[in-house]
Amino acid sequence: MSLVVLSSQGNGTPSRFNCSFPNGIILEPNSQVCCMSWSAKRSSFDEEIAINSYNDTLVWTFQDCRNSATEFSNVPFEKLTLPHASYDVNKYGDLASKIQEEMNDKEVLSAFKGGWEWTYSNDKFSILVKNMNHLPMDKGIWRQYYGIGSPTIVNNPGPAPILSVAQMSPGDISMNFIANAVSTTQLQPGEINNTNGIHAFPIEQAVIMGISTIDADGNNQASVLANMAGRHVTCISNDTTSAGRNTTYSFIHILGVQTYLPPAPSPITSATLIQFDVVVLEHNLNISNPEVGYNGVPRNWFSTEPLTLIFNGLSDPNAHKIAPNEEALNFYDENVLFNTSVINTPSSTSVSDPSGYSFSIPIDTTTPLHKLEGIVGGFITNQYFDYTQGTENTRNPDMDWSNRGGSNRAKVAYGWTIGSDFKLKALVGKQNQDQFSQTNYEQEEIDISGINLDVSRNTIDVMIRPIHNTSLFGWELLYRFKTEDDYSVGHSVFSTNGSTPYLKHLPLRQVLSYKNHNQMPCNCKAIHNAGSPANSSPPHWNVGMSISNSGSYSNTQSDWLTFVNSNATIGDTLNFFSGNYQQSGNTPITADLKSNEARELGNRPLLIQSPDLNVTGYSSNGQTPQILQMCSGINPNLSTETLLYEQFTNENWIEMKNKTPLNLTRLGIVITDVENKEVNFLEDTVVCLKFRTNNQNIKLGGF
Predict the structure, then answer these.
(1) Angle at 119 between CA 118 and CA 120, to 5 degrees
(2) Of 191, 326, 494, 495, which is most buried with the most CB atoms under 10 A?
(3) H and E: helices and strands count for the chain
(4) pLDDT by residue (tens digit) across 300-356?
(5) Pairing state of beta strands 173-179 and 191-194?
(6) Ramachandran sector of residue 335 (left: φ over 0; alpha: ψ -120 to 50; beta: rest)
(7) How far apart are the first and last CA of the chain?
(8) What sign results for the dihedral spanned by CA atoms 549, 552, 556, 557?
């Protein structure tokens, strides 16, 4: 038996060093090794925080996780894996900001997405989360699902010329006028000009357009023309004196009203003449103007030219126009919808000013009813997307909601449909079901009085809005014909418990489904994730940091503790030692110790390893390969933590099982924590090893 002393001085770093033996250490077959002692100096503390695969996760959930609380099982347990990086003592604030950024990015509950706040202050990390204010309604990001592959983004079609009255849609308006090359103030009833009557300019250079409020048919259009700002107008020639001239048009965007006569204070609805600021988007005036009435170069209107003006219906810039095609019948909004809470209800008490999830179908008196029957709109809960396919932002929605099957409708948690009797109905998932994508999923159709498309047809608007009434969370389905000024409440559903969790914080997605590709398009918009936090926090929220002993949390639900123990690892790194933290309201969770305090590393053993020894056996205390001994990061026998020394009283002989003699010319030592991370708080490390063989004989060449 012989002793080998290994020192870090001049041989590497205090946690990783190699000692060389020029003449070699010869070990007989079946040798054994034992770590007898070690010593080192310890620096003040480990100033660097390194996030790696051993400490990169934390978990959280928005619910009361006490055993005494009502289960709210469909609110998800959430997990974050942080990017790996190192942060020195001057960058702890950057680490707090990084965790905050990652949690807000991964948060699936829109009522809190953007509400996480991590800070590093007074040498401690702390966490707080707040409810989020809702944003104004916008179009979102819609995707169409073809049944195979990844969904594709739906792009709103841009404005296009309407080349005949026959091509008009509901909301479009047509008028007849006669062009005249005179200034706007000289226009007579029924006349129109551009460039203030100087038609010698090509029409693409026109920036103003003057018009009489009396059209060529003698109709007073003042109140209509007064509201044309923002619209597009197609000016179609009806001239028949030149071959092909009646196929020409100019397509113009009306930017706004420049002036009108008589001027203010007279209202514009009483004007006789209006001049608009315009921009010409396209035209095909490639037919020469006729000699009679010609007044200028070609490619502009000529005096006496009869024109039909078709004004596009003013589309909602905040809405997506969704239409089916031969491949795609199912659509979903990629942006998670805003859900309600007791703190922040994104709707007013007046149905004249609703905010929620909007669907608008342009219907006119000639719309065939088969283009409406079976259309479904509404929302589903986020967890029923297939997370195993696609990327984070393009998940494949191949799920039951898009598999209409024999029911001929999508399966929404809450929404609307136009039934086979052509009545608007609320579509509600039965509340006794735990989830809304199961095979035997059932929905209820509830008639909504006032809308029967077989009797009267007009553009129909449907709105689903989240509401809160005292202790009740819920949804209201509102409806109106476009000609009506106000919405009507068609159906309401409330919940006070977990049987309908989507009424509270569960993430939602807006969906739209068609029976066939010939059905009517729908304009969709919604309130999405908020841009600023409110002043209040959720009633209950939990953050899991590290392994939590169930005996220490006897009042905490076991499924949550299991999730924490299986996934959370960052706690000790940031000095959150309790493992699980539950908080109520607007009080932050703060670390148990300052980050610049010496940590009780003695409570977490250090490992002495030697990568050069082929240690394949196990000693009596269960040592694993290449680990020679466990030791402590503090010296309990000394008042100072600067000096470390430990002599191991138990001789843990570890078999090397070498079948032939070994000649070691170098021997390396690595000091790590139990997570196999090299420590960086040591100086002047010394490790003493003993070797022996079965016959207690060892030859030490050069010693």
Answers:
(1) 135
(2) 191
(3) 3, 40
(4) 898 889 999 999 876 777 888 888 887 778 888 888 788 766 656 666 667 776 788
(5) parallel
(6) beta
(7) 13
(8) positive
